[in-house]
Amino acid sequence: MTKEALAVTSQPEANKAFQALVKPECLNGGFLRMDAAAIRGPLYRALYLREFGKDEPGFAALPPEQPSEEDRGYHAFGACVMRVAPDTTRTFVLALPGSSEEHQALAALRPTFEACVTPREQLVFTKVAMDSTLAQALYERAVAVSHGGNLAKAN
Question: pTM for the whole thing?
Fold first, then answer.
């Protein structure tokens, strides 16, 4: 059910799909409303940890690859960052939010960000969007590699 919710791309439909993941018995009579953007990163992180574990070996770093015109944007950016700096991306995603480890990983990723954005492109991230984008890229690359995908193709 989680993977299906993550596959939904329409914001209103994604909000409904994520709300359906909430189990009333876990809320002790309370109510929880969450925005899809805020929950994507933690769900991708949880899937990664469940399927690959915290001790999963890293990936080989590869040179940046310019995405096609239709592949530009946040998803392509996350895939590029994961491709260029896989270990640091993994460290960032798995670090406790607000920890010094997370801050150090983010600082180490900054030069990679520039390599993954074309001169004509401008991307603006909130912390939540950055978490979500990089967690999704980490999970997708791990899935691709685990299914026999070529490292060069496993963005």
Answer: 0.79
